[in-house]
Amino acid sequence: MNLPILYSFRRCPYAMRARMAISYSQITVELREVILKDKPLQLLEISPKATVPVLQLSNGQVIEESLDIMYWALKINDPQTINLSDSEIFQQNELILDNDYKFKKYLDHYKYADRFPEHDQLFYRKKGEYFLEKLDDILKHQAFLMGKQLSVIDFSIFPFIRQFVHVDKAWFDQSEFNHLRKWLNYFLTSDIFNSVMHKFNQWNPNNEKLLFPITDHMALKRLQ
Questions:
Q1: What is the tens place of the pLDDT at every residue in 19-35?
Q2: Residue 219 covered by a domain
Q3: 50: pLDDT confidence band, cut at 50, 70 and 90?
Q4: Where are the alpha helices (DSSP H) in the chain?
């Protein structure tokens, strides 16, 4: 049987959230780990822009956006009903738009401050903190971003917050973002996150197929 093929890069937050949705949905795909400086011809042929993640379905259809991949997976299997009912509603969610189109810019400037010498790293961190404050304020009143229950919005945003935090984790650990820190730790210690962060060698056509997720059952760790 031909499996869907997922081209991914372990540390990319877009690829990470797609893998989290697939793992949660317990859908088996063939995983092809990509090195961004050495992208395989097979990826370039189906997606000339070659930004991961890219999912090629068994029927040849190609899904090139991480949110579309997430929605595809959750429409097939959503054990704990974390999905929003409509793809357009999901992708136009205010937090998703803010994360993907504004916060991501500040994240990149903060993480790679040497590439943006107009300002120092602290300046870029301060610019990004607005989003952390926004999320922390939401999480003062509820466990997850959309309410008491986990949702696909949490999956979508978590990898970007993780990346921002790890630029200077010591700063974040002593910051005032107590509610956001609890939310972040929930994911960092969860089975679903650990299931998608295995290290794999670069894919090449001579490799044996690598099936993903690694285990058959991925249970989400619940808040105590």
A1: 999 999 999 999 999 99
A2: no
A3: confident
A4: 13-25, 41-46, 66-76, 87-91, 94-98, 104-111, 121-139, 152-165, 169-173, 178-188, 191-196
The pair of structure tokens assigned to 113 is 């401050």
Distance (Å, whole) CA 187 – CA 59? 33
CB-neighbour burial class of residue 35 (10 A; exposed 0-12, middle 13-18, buried 19+): exposed
Whether the predicted pLDDT of 120 surpasses 70 = yes
Q: State the residue for tokens 């040849």.
A: 60
Give the per-residue pLDDT at 215: 62
CB of 34 within 8 A of CB of 43?
Answer: yes
Shared domain for 95 and 74, answered yes or no, is no
Query: Is 218 a residue whose pLDDT tops 90?
Result: no
DSSP type of residue 215 = S
How far, CA to CA in Å, does 74 sit from each of 2, 19, 84, 99? Answer: 20, 12, 9, 21
Residue at 146: amino acid letter = M
State the chain's mean pLDDT as an integer: 93
Residue for token pair 């989400």: 220
Note whether 93 and 145 are within 8 A (CB). Answer: no
Q: Does residue 223 fall inside a structural domain?
A: no
Q: In whole angstroms, how large is the CA radius of gyration of the chain?
A: 18
The whole domain housing 20 covers 5-80+192-212
User: pLDDT digits over 130-155, tens only?
Assistant: 999 999 999 999 999 999 999 999 99
Transcribe 30-61 into DSSP letters.
EEEE-BTTB--HHHHHH-TT-PSPEEE-TTS-
